[in-house]
Amino acid sequence: MWLLALLKGILVGICASIPLGPVGVICVQQTVNRGRRAGFASGYGAALADTLFATVAFLSLSVILDFIEEHRQILQVGGGAILIALGIVTFVRNAIKKFRRDRLKRSNYAQDFVYIFLLTLTNPLSIFIFLTLFAAFGVHERSTQLEVLIPTLLGVHLGAAAWWYFLTYLVSRFQSFFRLRQIWWFNKIAGVLIILLGLITALYPFLSSQQ
C-alpha cells in the first residue's frame, strides 16, 4: 500500500508543478543568469510550499470524503469548471511580464529559496488543485493513517522536487537555445490541455449516466 501511495503522490507532485507561472519563469531566469543551483534552490522552495498545500488538501479530503461520495456528480462538474478556469488563466496570463514587474534582487541560494517559498504560499488556489489531482488519481483514503499519509506526501514532495530538478537541468543543458519566449508557448499549450481535461471531467458524469 505504501509503495502505491508513494507512486500516486509522485504523479500528483509532478502534475501540480508542470504548469509554469511566474514561479517557473523565475526559476528559469535564475538558472540562465546564475546557474542551475540557483534555479533549483528557487524551485525547491516551490516544492516545499506545494507539499504544505498537499498536506492541507489530503487532510481535508479525508475529512470530507463522505460528502464527496454523496455529491460526486456535482463536485465532478465543479472540479471540471475549476480546471477550465485554471486552463484559461494559464493560457491568457503573461507570466514573463509579471516576473519583470515583481522581480527582486536576491544574492544567495537561501534568499532564492525563501522568496519562492513565500511567493508560492500566496496562491492558496493550489489546495483545490491538489484536491482535484488527489481525486483524479484515486487518493481518497477514509483515514489519515501514517502508512498512507506519509508516503503520499513524501511522493508529492519528491515529484515536485524532481520536476524542478529536471527543468533546471534542461535549461542549463540547453541554455544557449533557451529563451523565455518558450515559456509563453508552453503556457498556451498547457492551458489548452488543462481546459480539455476540465471539459472531460465536467462532462463525464453525464456521459457515463447515458451508458
Describe the structure.
- With 211 residues, the chain is mainly alpha-helical.
- The chain contains 10 helices and no strands.
- It has helices at residues 2-17, 22-34, 36-63, 65-70, 72-92, 95-102, 109-121, 125-136, 146-173, 181-209.
- Helix 1 packs across helix 8.
- The radius of gyration is 18 Å and the shape is globular.
How far do the termini sit from each other? 32 Å
Q: pLDDT under 50 segments (min length 5)?
A: none
Radius of gyration: 18 Å
Please estimate the helix content: over 70%
Main pleated-sheet profile:
none
**Tally of DSSP β-strands:** 0
What's the mean pLDDT score? 75
Helix/sheet category: mainly alpha
Beta-strand percentage range: under 5%
Element pattern in H and E: HHHHHHHHHH
How many separate helices? 10
Q: Any idea what the shape is?
A: globular
Tell me the layout of helices and strands:
Layout: H1 2-17, H2 22-34, H3 36-63, H4 65-70, H5 72-92, H6 95-102, H7 109-121, H8 125-136, H9 146-173, H10 181-209
List keywords for this structure.
211 residues, mainly alpha
In short:
With 211 residues, the chain is mainly α. Helices cover 82% and strands 0% of the residues.
